[in-house]
Amino acid sequence: MHTTPHINAFWRLSLVTVLAVYLLIFVGGVVRASGSGMGCPDWPTCFGRLIPPTQESELPSDYHERYVGYGDTTFNPLKTWTEYLNRLLGASIGLLIFGTFIRSVPLRKRNPVIFRLALLTLMLVGFQGWLGSRVVASELKPTLISAHMIVALVIVSLLIFMTTRARESTTQPLDIRGLPKVWHRVIAIALLMTLLQVSMGTQIREAVDGITHQALVTERSIWREHFPIIFYIHRSFSSIILMTNLWLVYHLMRSLGQGHPLKKPAMTLAFLVIMAILSGVSLDRLGFPAIVQPFHLLLANLIFGCQFFLWLSTRHALKVALKKSPELLLRTRSG
Fold first, then answer.
1. Confidence of residue 138 (pLDDT cuts 50, 70, 90)
2. Are 331 and 196 in the same domain?
3. Residue 181 and residue 112 share a domain
4. What pTM did the predictor assign?
5. Contact 241, 197 (CB under 8 A)
6. Which of 60, 199, 205, 207 has minimal CB crowding within 10 Å?
7. Among 133, 156, 171, where does a domain finish?
8. Between 205 and 291, whose confidence is greater?
9. pLDDT in tens, 274-305
10. Angstrom distance (rounded) from CA 132 to CA 240
């Protein structure tokens, strides 16, 4: 198919940006799990500085009084620099997304959808920055933290859509005739199931924040005893998610030809789901170790991204096939 330097340049930059956003999601999980969210009590500066100090002696002697009302302002260099590096990474990704928008401008006539979504993503990044400031100002209000994470998921989904759309315009359509017709419905259901599971996960995390903020429990190992019923629903639902995704992967591996481009993403999906469940089991059985939490969060987001990519790719291939052979539409509906 015909390619242009503009499409290739956009695809490469958008792919790098997708990976960078996932890194930011992981680092954000580290910030939350380590309790570093208030490592910088103010925003956008950190203790009033563009570059925070490395030791308490570098701060004014009355810095506690200056930041009264900002929660616990005790200086902890590890937490301060963890949060500060999280902010630097966020700003860097903002620049990457601005770059993807600039790269999309030459495509506005040939691929107007990419241009419009790049503009929307840029606007969402601005909103995300504002929302981050509200998170700090609210002293890490759980609902705002969850909203911050959901917006990040929307941003990475838009980036995956644009990246996939750009790649589709430079490659031959995929042959997915071997897949059962119901597969396309099941992948859509799997996406909704993952969103529901992530939503329940954020509610569990909010419950943990409520437990610790109310000083009900300080020992991680017995948090589980105080969890709401949604924790047990979340845990049991993972088995349904496992079976659904393994069904999808099984049919991709069995039905598609040797060396098919979707086989590697399929195996990746199976690996991610299994690792997410194992990390969830370790959280449940090992007293919610902080080191596991960001990995569990990252795996959940990667699962959604992988499913979304497979859904986009097979949907595009099906649309191309239907254009070439309209009679496939009746078979698809009947299937």
1. confident
2. yes
3. no
4. 0.85
5. yes
6. 60
7. 171
8. 291
9. 999 999 998 878 777 888 889 999 999 999 99
10. 34
